[in-house]
Design brief:
By secondary structure, the protein is of the alpha/beta class. It contains ten helices and 13 strands. The protein has helices at about 45-55, 70-80, 115-120, 150-160, 180-185, 195-205, 210-220, 260-270, 275-290, 305-310; strands at about 5-10, 15-20, 35-40, 60-65, 85-90, 100-105, 110-115, 135-140, 165-170, 190-195, 225, 235, 240-245.
Length: about 325
């Protein structure tokens, strides 16, 4: 019997307030900076990736926690409009929905996050019976999810027993701990992990990429899809198979959600059993399309947006 969902995304759910059009190169304490644009849009790594996977043609569902407040209503409505199943989103009587303020500079961004419900969302808010209705489980912002993180090894193992594959977006660790020992409990139950270059260096305590990848593989990572921004992506399997794909030259408007778009494109191809290079090609195209617009879900509208980038590189294989 076919499962109704390709992907069940589990994790944080909150809006982003994005400030852009900043002339300064970066934040500077003690100064005043100006910006030209602001927008309130759906935020959170897991939710952005979920929406973009839906736009790429995957059937998606979301499980998370929001407060009974305007931000919570905003997030659920945003998912509903995209066709994402929100039956797994719970409402908290005691905690407010979190929010992230994204300050977007020309070459990077700074995020300020009030965690709210994302920090307390845990296994008690999750109906594990939904695992059997999905082909794949994706979790984002691993280090931000204090309530969910300790239970993830058990939940991923349970999902696998239910016939699911699994993926994890590492995200930044605002605590600065970067606990590889804790992560190592989860990696053997994870099919694909998505770090960026800075996160990989932090969690492995190793600046050399090759050495860092080897550390993560020894810790249990089966497949690492490394996000390298404008440099493109690198995929590394524990078996030793490796491939890379260059990025696409673009004029960056806002990098918010570009990494989540990379995840979405990679998983779209991965779930179609595409070769490594094709996974990276679609992932890079999705990330580039997203970075050309403000907000995590503002730039990649459908699969054709990514395909336009792929046609610029005839050597890349077709989109699955």
């Amino acid at each position: 019997m076919e499962r109704p969902f390709d992907v069940l995304a589990i994790g944080e759910l909150n809006p982003d307030m994005i400030l852009s059009g900043i002339d300064a190169d970066g934040p500077q304490l003690g100064t005043e900076q100006t910006f030209t644009d602001e927008v309130l849009t759906l935020g959170s790594s897991t939710a952005i990736a979920c929406v973009l996977m839906q736009r790429l043609g995957l059937r998606t569902a979301f499980a998370g926690l929001v407060g009974k407040d305007d931000y919570g209503t905003f997030c659920i409505s945003a998912l509903d409009r995209e066709g994402v199943d929100t039956a797994g989103v719970c409402l908290s009587d005691t905690h407010a929905t979190g929010i992230t303020v994204s300050i977007s500079y020309a070459h990077d961004r700074m995020l300020l996050t009030r965690a709210g419900t994302m920090a307390v969302f845990g296994p008690d808010d999750l109906d594990a019976g939904r695992f059997a209705r999905a082909r794949h489980i994706h979790v984002g912002s691993y280090f931000l999810q204090d309530g969910l993180r300790p239970a993830l090894p058990r939940l991923f193992a349970e999902a696998r027993r239910a016939g699911c594959t699994t993926s994890l977006d590492l995200g930044w660790d605002p605590s600065g701990r970067w606990d590889l020992d804790e992560l190592s409990l989860l990696l053997p139950e994870t099919d694909v992990i998505f770090p960026n270059a800075a996160e990989l260096a932090q969690v492995t305590r190793e600046q050399d990429v090759e050495s860092a990848l080897a550390i993560l593989h020894r810790a249990g990572a089966a497949e690492i899809a490394l996000k390298r921004g404008g440099k493109g992506g690198l995929a590394s399997l524990r078996s030793g198979q490796r491939d890379t794909h260059p990025g696409f030259p673009i004029s960056v408007v806002d990098t918010t959600g570009a990494g989540d778009a990379f995840n979405a494109g990679y998983l779209k191809a991965w779930l179609s059993d595409a070769p490594l290079r094709d996974r990276l090609a679609l992932a890079n195209a999705c990330g580039a399309a997203t970075a050309q617009a403000s907000g995590g879900i503002g730039g990649l509208l459908d699969l054709s947006d990514a395909e336009r980038f792929l046609t610029r590189r005839p050597a890349a294989a077709g989109v699955p």
